[in-house]
Each structure stands twice: as structure tokens, then as C-alpha cells.
Amino acid sequence: MQVKRALLKLSGEALAGPNGSGLHGETLTAIAADIAAANRAGFEVAIVVGGGNFFRGVQGLSRGLTRNAGDSIGMLGTVMNALALEHAIEAAGVPARAMSAIAMPALCESYARRRAIDHLGNGKVVVLGGGTGNPWFTTDTGAALRAAELECDVLLKGTNVDGVYDSDPRANPHAIRFDRLTHAEAIARDLKVMDTAAFALARDSGLSILVFSLHTPGAICAALRGEGAFTLVA
Ligand code: UDP
């Protein structure tokens, strides 16, 4: 698979590092350095960030909020992460542009497909906050949506483990990693690595998903080159 333009999905958890919530400076810097290296290597990288390190919509239910209210708060969390990542990537020496699916012009640009494509073509990393801009969705689905819209060659899903296993590799030392799965298999197995809506959208738009571990320096560049350990859903 020859990759020129990629959509990288980073969960909020990936930015929380050992803290488990909020933002962890060293982790943010390390991920930004990896993204900057990918940009310098000539890849066009758009990023969709999650917000679980701040808030997930369903958490609101236990606090007397409706799902709609909780999801609004969750989407705001993703914009906070997008702003943090934009800053960290620029600090790593590469131009970046945060764009939000929900207009907040005092903080960042509003997402518009053609403008995002222009930024990518001009050598900027684009960091997309706000998910799909709608409640009842996740940023995984937002990532599949933006990858399809921006005509990305692949969706890179960075996680804590180096692919998709037949059981939890942290609990079962004999767990086997899949090298390759179809979208239909991923949906049928109800894999937790991404939600069904995201897999279905990827399937319908002919988008491949590469699941890899973010935990080695240079992991993002390696994944873009198809090197290292990963599972490909195609
Ligand atoms: N969210 C939403 N619509 C979207 C994307 C996200 O309402 O299109 C909200 C939802 O409440 C979600 C939260 O934002 O729980 C954070 O996103 P997500 O859980 O996908 O983040 P991650 O698990 O990747 O950190």
C-alpha cells in the first residue's frame, strides 16, 4: 500500500500518558515529534483527536445530564486536545492548523473539507477537533468520516497494543495477533478497537484501517511506511 495522505486517529487517552486523564506534557511532545517527522518525510497527515481524557458523553448520564448534553461536553474536550496538539506540533517545528467541526472562530478555524485539503497540500498538519460535530457519534466514526472526505489512503488507528488480537494480550499471553481482517470480520467479531459505525463507514468507502501501537518512538512514520507490527483491516 503506497501512502501519501493519511488520517491518524489519536484517542484522548493517548495524550494523557501515565496520568490516565488530562494532558501529559512529555507524551504530547513525543507524539508531536513523531507527527512532525512524518510531515518532514513528505506524508500529508490529518489527525482526528478524541476527548476521553477529559470527558465522554455517557459519563454525563451518571451526573444527571442527558446524552446530548454529555456529548456536547465531550466534543469540547476533543477541541481542547486539538489545540494542545496544534501547539505541540508547531513547537516541534512543523506548521499545524487546528480545525473544529463546531464553529469557535476565536479559537481555531472551522472545518471545511476543501480548506483542510489546501492546508495538507501546503505542508501543514491538520488537527481536527469536534468529532463529527454531532452528538451520538464517536471520534472513531469522525475519523472514518474525515478519512473518506479527505480521500486519505489509509486510516491509522494508534492504540496501546500493536494490532488486533483474538483476546486481550494483556490478560492472555497466548493471544494471537491478526495480520489482516476484513471489515466484515471486524464487525462480526464486535472488535472494541473501533466502533461498528466506524468500521461500516470505512467498509462502504473502501478505506483500509491500520491498527498499531503508539508506544515506540517513530511508530507513526513506521506505520505510514507499512513497517513494524500491525493489523490491517481491508
Ligand atoms: N463526541 C460526539 N460526537 C462526535 C465525536 C465525539 O458527541 O462526533 C463526544 C462523545 O461524547 C465522546 C466524546 O466526544 O464520548 C469524546 O470522544 P471519544 O469518546 O470518541 O474520544 P476517545 O475515546 O477517542 O478519547
UniProtKB/TrEMBL annotation:
Binding sites annotated in the UniProt record for ATP: K9, L10, S11, G12, G52, R56, T159, N160, Y165, D168
Residues that, per the record, bind UMP: G51, D71, T132, G133, N134, P135, W136, F137, T138, T139
The protein's name in its UniProt record: Uridylate kinase
Cross-referenced Gene3D superfamilies: Acetylglutamate kinase-like (3.40.1160.10)
Catalytic reaction list: UMP + ATP = UDP + ADP
Self-association state and partner proteins as the record states: Homohexamer.
Major enzyme class: transferase
The enzyme's E.C. designation: 2.7.4.22
Function: Catalyzes the reversible phosphorylation of UMP to UDP.
Gene name, Swiss-Prot/TrEMBL: pyrH
Regulation: Allosterically activated by GTP. Inhibited by UTP.
Example of a GO MF term: UMP kinase activity
